[in-house]
Specification:
Belongs to the pirin family. By secondary structure, this protein is an all-beta fold. The protein has a single domain, classed as Sandwich (Jelly Rolls). It is built from no helices and 22 strands. The N terminus is likely disordered.
Length: about 250
């Protein structure tokens, strides 16, 4: 399976925040960068191995009941509030802002996610990555980030190596988070040839390779060796997701 370029000469794709698919229920507002469940756009199925990027807001005390997953690497990044996670591996934990959750679904796992807050919303990013190994034993991981490591620079929060910083997954992917003051410039170097990078502006604004981006915009780039990034407002938070553009 491979990500198809919209045009032969085009090496990037821009997804403005207001162009995302939006679905609402009584307890959940979900803004979807890529097609998922009841949102479908044939031009927005995935970015290489990045299959799902959902920006979810969940009502207090509500959530996803027990449901199954298999052969997918699922990452949750709480932005506000806290989530209560329970799964068939025996985990019953709470994740909150400043933490990262990873679930390698492998041969199959059942889980639920509910808002822990009885009096406030929960906002989180739900991200799915296609694995490079199928039918592995399911695995759960959760870490607390040292936010001093992402001040005006990118902090690695995910990689393919269990010995590296952050959680690890079954894919040649690297995630980084950075919090930047206005006008701070930095460079991101691709970790593996053939990978692309999908940047998501969590808050603030930035210029990435001269592309102006605002809050919740997404920008994917491939066939590159690196990216030049400049924050254009105070308290700009950026998530970089480097993933293979071709997957088996």
């Amino acid at each position: 399976m491979a990500f198809s370029q919209p045009a032969e000469t085009k090496k990037n794709v821009l997804h403005k925040a207001d162009s995302r698919g939006k679905t609402e229920s009584e307890w959940l507002v979900s803004q979807k960068t890529f097609g998922f469940v009841d949102y479908y756009d044939p031009e927005r199925i995935q970015f290489g191995a990045l299959r799902v990027l959902n920006d979810d807001t969940m009502e207090a005390g509500k959530g996803f009941g027990v449901h199954p997953h298999d052969n997918m690497e699922i990452i949750s990044i709480p932005l506000e509030g806290s989530l209560e996670h329970e799964d068939s591996l025996g985990n019953k934990v709470v994740i909150k802002s400043g933490e990262i959750q990873l679930m390698s679904a492998g041969t199959g796992v059942m889980h639920s996610e509910f808002s822990k807050n009885e009096d406030g919303l929960v906002k989180f990013l739900q991200i799915w990555i296609y694995p490079n190994k199928k039918n592995v034993s399911p695995r759960y991981d959760q870490i607390t980030l040292d936010k001093t490591k992402s001040k005006n620079k990118f902090q690695q929060i995910l990689s393919p190596n269990p010995d590296d910083e952050g959680v690890w997954i079954y894919q040649d992917a690297w995630f980084h988070l950075g919090n930047f003051e206005n006008n701070i410039e930095t460079h991101y170097q691709i970790k593996k040839k053939g990978n692309g990078v999908y940047a998501f502006i969590i808050k603030g604004s930035a210029e990435i390779d001269d592309q102006k981006l605002e809050e919740r915009d997404g920008f994917g780039v491939w066939d590159i060796s690196g990216l030049n990034i400049k924050a254009t407002s105070e308290n700009t938070e950026i998530l970089l997701m480097e993933v293979p553009m071709k997957i088996n």
